[in-house]
Amino acid sequence: MWRNVFLVFLLIFTAGADANVYTWTDSSGRLHFSDIPVPGASKYQVKGSNRIYNPTYNLEANRKREEVPFQMVKGNMMVRGKVNGIPLRFVVDTGASHVVIPPAVAKRADIRSQGAREVVMDTANGKARAVAVWLDRLDIDSISEKHVRAVIQKLPGKEEKGLLGMNFLGRYKMTVDHQHHVLILERR
Fold first, then answer.
1. pLDDT in tens, 94-111
2. Is the distance from CB of 82 to CB of 135 less than 8 angstroms?
């Protein structure tokens, strides 16, 4: 009996001590890695690194995801945010190239537009003049971005609101979950 225990121990100990990695290509051309040698496999030599190249590793599954709640208001997807700490509701607008903030919020957020560059914007209502500025900080729910380009422009309607344009949204892969009323944003 002790002899059998010794043999099992010896097999386990020597198998763990080998710790080689083997590689092979199957009949469909897919590359495989394993710590168990199979017929036709060769030892994989890692050169100057302790990592193994694995083309099937899912990097997307490890990206940080943020869920931003939204509300549908008169056909617009609205999210809550802050411009330099000043609260503002934003319309999520994938057709807008820039973040747009109203003049009153810019003033409360201490955003200086004097000497800023004037730009001409193509809007749904035609061409409009606006002032291009940099926001020190833009928060959308739990997401915080620093040094974001924006334009100061009054939007139609009585409600004070901004537009969340592609210079912010383009930093993320965006999925809309209508069932749960959340935007799922993953950093690109």
1. 999 999 999 999 999 999
2. no
The ranges assigned to domains in the chain are 2-57, 65-187
CA angle 105, 111, 116 (to 5 degrees): 120
Alpha helices in 63-173 (DSSP H): 103-108, 166-169
Residues 6 or more apart in contact with residue 170 via CB below 8 angstroms: 188
Contacts from 75-82 at CB under 8 Å and sequence distance 24+?
77/176, 77/183, 78/161, 79/140, 79/141, 79/164, 79/183, 80/140, 80/141, 81/138, 81/139, 81/140, 81/141, 81/162, 81/164, 82/137, 82/138, 82/139
- Rounded Cα distance between 106 and 65, Å, is 29
CA distance 176 to 67: 10
Q: Out of 34-38, 70-74, 181-185, pick the least confident.
A: 34-38
Give per-residue pLDDT as tens, 161-179: 999 999 999 999 999 999 9
- Tokens representing 23 are 């590689």
The pLDDT confidence band at residue 3, using thresholds 50, 70 and 90, is low
The hierarchical CATH code for the domain 65-187 is 2.40.70.10
Specify whether the CB–CB gap between 64 and 186 falls below 8 A: yes
